[in-house]
Amino acid sequence: MNLKELEERQKHIRNFSIVAHIDHGKSTISDRILEATHTVASRDMQAQLLDTMDLERERGITIKMNAVEVHYVANDGETYIFHLVDTPGHVDFSYEVSRSLAAADGAILVVDAAQGVEAQTLANVYLALDNDLEILPLINKIDLPAAEPEKVRAEIEDVIGLDASDAVLASAKKGIGIPELLEQIVTKLPAPEGDLEGPLKALIFDSTYDAYKGVILTIRVKDGMVKPGDKIKFMNSGAEYDVTEVGVNSPHPIKREYLVAGDIGYVAASIKNIRDARPGDTITTVQNGAAEPLAGYKPMTPMVYSGLYPSDNAKYNYLREALEKLQLNDASLEFDPETSQALGFGFRTGFLGMLHMDVIQERLEREFDLDLITTAPSVTYHAFLKDGTMVEVDNPSELPEVGEIEHIEEPFVYAQIMVPNDYVGAVMDLAQRKRGEFDTMDYLDANRVNVKYYLPLSEIIFEFFDILKSTTRGYASLDYEMSGYRPSDLVKIDILLNGDKVDALSFIVHRDFAQERGRLITIKLKDLIPRRNFEIPVQAAIGSKIIARSTIKAYRKDVTSKIHTGDPDRRAKLLDKQKRGKARMKSVGTVDVPQEAFMAVLKTGDDEGKN
Ligand SMILES: Nc1nc2c(ncn2[C@@H]2O[C@H](COP(=O)(O)OP(=O)(O)OP(=O)(O)O)[C@@H](O)[C@H]2O)c(=O)[nH]1
């Protein structure tokens, strides 16, 4: 193509993201766009096509963003190139959303016609506005009997402040409104700008590892052009590579001769060193390269840390490699080596939330065939010592001795809870119980309010959302952001099994809850830890003071002893099950501790009897 043709082509590109509160229908809208543009033949179509991970399909959620190119013939007769970036809705994956927004020029904001504006609807709008994106509101699920599209239209205008007079009324499920949406993408979202002839500047916003092609980068070309044979340079890491292939996903990879300003696509360059190719870096050409990199991303601070240990100590290096590969695909993952007396060598790993932690653990087990022991997650505490220094503690067992500590501070969040009036009392009770400090309450409309609280991160991150959902029959939505550290009266509880302190079971809690939590954990551990042929005392202690105790009675365990049928199949199955159970178990001194025991410290008893 000559320059004029490239310019004409650029005017026909639309790069956009689809954002929404969880479950409002982003992935279904993407499916409909792929269908309506014949990107995927109907016989190959399946629901949530862009959720390519098994894990995403099983859980019905989007974890990873995905970028695809589709071609659309508009009412003006011209063909447009859309790059659609599907993004996750869960608060734990907002980092994925912000990265994809940096690559787009516009965003489609999907709002459920029955639910209206929810906490993450607002959060995502702010992210889109931070990235200067044009926002196109769409009201989905108008087929639902409870749909109130006009009320939601007014809510989008009042609560968010967006003009929603032209918002498409859609049902992604029934395919209603999709033609209007496609036209609005053409007429209302801007074409990319960017110098077609200037030095190459491309933002890496995602990457994956391919055993044959090396690291594959997903990029947004801001200026210039990149093609096979080019020698490229990563402007932050300084690494240089020869491009072997460029292309787009549509939704399967299609090779291209080049990618040019305005395009979203992939680049492969036989990159073997994972550390050279971090998302957020800028690539340029070695010859006539750009002088300054693009802004990149703010590094993300993990919310919780937990220890990851291979059940089999010999797999330590393999676990490190697996974490490095996952980090490519998940820039918010952080890890550092650590050792535990109880668990051996592992990694202290940072996550954006519990769902993120769950997903990483499951991906490590599935994609890398690892058996892992995970310790209970902890937030990062600041321990101010009498000698005037401060230590950051993300592993409770490393909290300095009580005598050395002047005071401890813990992270607080500013939380917004959107909820129908009828449940405000229940929400406030819960927030109060979780040591919340009330800030304000705004009315969203006659029936719904936005309640705002300061809450300790440690209280909100573990089970708060589940309890919130169950006490409000699923009507509440929650979003939060960090709001700094505050002093709290915190203590560390150690757990002793058979008289030995197990460092991986220590946890930090507010003094008011210490007695109760100590009692709960000793009972819980008594049920979880397999009996041995001797008695095992389970104790909870603050310093040298024992605050709770239970006893695991002596017993010789043989799961097959009760089977008299002599059915060898059944016996083999049971033994096999028992063996697999063992894989997720660690021997600590003379006691076998199963995976669940490490998570038991999170139980506060607050959700008991609620489900
Ligand atoms: N009735 C109705 N249901 C819909 C419509 N669009 C989506 N759904 C359903 O709503 C649920 C959530 O849809 P998804 O497309 O997975 O929502 P999402 O926003 O992508 O969810 P996450 O990716 O997990 O954030 C699914 O069960 C869909 O079948 C619609 O127009 N009408």
Structural notes for this entry:
Its EC number is 3.6.5.n1. With 611 residues, the protein is α+β, with helices and mostly antiparallel strands. It folds into five domains: 3-188, P-loop containing nucleotide triphosphate hydrolases (Rossmann fold), CATH 3.40.50.300; 201-285, Beta Barrel (Elongation Factor Tu (Ef-tu), domain 3), CATH 2.40.30; 304-375, Elongation Factor G (Translational Gtpase), domain 3 (Alpha-Beta Plaits); 381-488, Alpha-Beta Plaits (2-Layer Sandwich), CATH 3.30.70; 492-603, 2-Layer Sandwich (Alpha-Beta Plaits). 26% of the residues lie in helices and 33% in strands. The chain has an eight-stranded antiparallel beta sheet, with helices on one face. A six-stranded mixed beta sheet has the order 2-3-1-4-5-6, with helices on both faces. Strands 21, 22, 23, 24, 25 and 26 form a six-stranded antiparallel beta sheet that branches. The longest helix has 18 residues, at 511-528. Bound molecules: guanosine-5'-triphosphate. Guanosine-5'-triphosphate binds at residues 20, 22-28, 48, 60-62, 88-89, 140-141, 143-144, 171-173.
Distance between the termini: 63 Å
Major sheet attributes: 8 strands, antiparallel
The appropriate CATH architecture of the largest domain is 3-Layer(aba) Sandwich
Mean pLDDT: 85
Strand content: 25-35%
Q: Would you state the CATH class of the largest domain?
A: Alpha Beta
| Uncertain parts | none
